[in-house]
Amino acid sequence: MDREVGKINRYLMIGWLLIVAVLSVTYMGEFFKGHRDAAYMTMFLSVTLIPAVACLVYFLKKPESKELRYFAVAGYLMMYTFVLLNTNTIMTYGYIIPMLSLIVLYHSPKLVLIMGGVSLGANIACVIRFFRIGMVTRDDIKDVEIQLGMIMFCFVFAYIASRLYRKIVMENEEHIGSIDDKQKQLERVTLQTITTIANIIDAKDEYTKGHSYRVAEYSSALARELGYSKEQVANVKYIGLLHDIGKIGIPDSILNKPGKLTDSEYAIMRRHAEIGGHILEGNNMIDGMNAGAKYHHERYDGRGYPLGLKGEEIPEMARIIGIADAYDAMTSNRVYRKRLTDEKVISEIRRCSGAQFDPAIAEVFIGMIESGRLEGISPDTVPGEGGKSMAEQSAELLRSVIGFKEKPYDNEHDYLTGVLSRNAGEALISKALSEKDGGLFIVDITNLLGVNEKHGIVSGDRVLMEAADVLSERDDLTVVRYDGSVFLCFAPGEEDREAMDRMMSDICQKLSAKLRVMNEYEDNHICIGGALSCEAGRDLPGLLIAADKALFHVKQLETDGSYLYTKPDKAGTNNRYGIDLEQLVKMFSDGSEEAVYGMDSPEFRRIYETVKGIYEKSKQEMQLLLITVTPALGKTPAISDRDEAMEYLQSAIDVTVSPSMITFRFSSVQWMVIVTEPQTESAEVVTERILNCFYKSYDKKNMALTAEAAQLPKFV
Fold it and tell me: Are 230 and 255 within one domain?
């Protein structure tokens, strides 16, 4: 908007000075011809040149000033009035045309009204004077009336047009102002959101608290020194805040290891640059958003990672963040050393100039260190807008948006919900089980991904925090954030089935009531599956499998609910999964899943009717194959690893089994295959094909397969 005003002012001054120049030359010519005396010329030049020169000086100082319009009109009015009252001709109304052009240019109704009144009054005074001296007679009255009428006509229509235009302009300016306010508000929220993400990143690494903020400040200060525009400097700050976002994908055990990393651990740590690049890839909010995250560990000599870029192949944004990142590492205290002195830091940057750092950027940065222009950035906090640190702004955002409550942030607690982390929780529950029995149940909030996609990650986080609050209300429970939207709850000493059932049902109802009032919580279910160690065993992996089986069958019903694992009547075979095979055979014998789990699955009913129809048609006995995904020896994989392995198993089954066979997912970790023509392909042959296909595609070593076969009963 200011640029448009400046452009109008420039054209206004050019036009006005051109008119003054033409009039001055014309009147000077009349003076030299003897038609004007010296007093008249002095007065004319004073009222003509002085206002014009004064406005020109004002324009040069403030070219985008909105007040210049009023000074210009006042100056032109002085010249116009002088000529009108001191001329010997009635044709001075011709001066009105450029003045009208001048005042219409600004679309000011008030200005048009004032100038119209002054002009009409001056012209009437001029006509009266001409009547008195005899220059105008009654025979000229018709022409005088026409001239005065034209003046009124011009100003009246200029006033109407200005009013209409002014209304449109003001409405447009209000609209633009509203958009600008919303844009600024969006920018503030964007900065705070990015700052929140940076908080989460730094919370994972206890040795680099505040690192992202300091790097952002150092980087933006360096960009400003390099001549970046205000907008570009802001972008550098945003990108600097997210340069370590890839650390989200690095295990805490590696990030927080106090000693030297092994070669394999260092290889994993190096992946944070590549992970960060993938996370931010395709984000169009800021041009080159992923450059800082992906390339800030590239070296000028080409010996960096992840791509080994060299020289100016590395984006300048990454070269700036790279040196800021190194500077913060050298000037921050570590467990193994204190911060380096400025002299040592400058010496190190000079030594690495041309190798690790861009020489030109390094020289500018050294100048900033030597002049003390980086001293305002504290190792403990980074100042933000409005006198508050970015960390404080981030905390305010969390409190206002998701009702943030202070929670312990350490290795034993989940950073978001404050409940126990998975590693700490498993260790605590295993220790408790070694001493006495207890009840364990899994709480799964389904379709949390849908909440994140529809309402944003902050809304999904809010759902998890609310759920954690409900679970933590009970003093008799150990609550663990197990995996994604899954919580693990352990009740030490619990052995009573009815009490355990009531507890799970009560928690399910409270969670459902709490989350249903949230707008973000749509098309989701609270599914709870539990097991008692006195029935399923006191080793945590076995207890988890039992609870997971119960959870799977609750999830099949696609509604809120809870179910407690029921121990089969028979002890089963020596194989720990033989019980499941017996249960499956029993289900086909009784014709209902309800015989085992107390609930009926429409999918199993369809499978049962199909198998029964095949038998009645062919009278051919069929074989039942049950394949289970189990943790590999000595491994404790996450639920996400189990689910991934199940996807690979499903693919192996789809590829290897013939169309005549029937497949069915029996539980969260098991697939069932019914061999309908065992005389053609036995269960052993089918099993071998499935296992070979699975292990060829699934290259991780944390999950394994167990396969068992049985003869299906005859359908009577």
Answer: yes
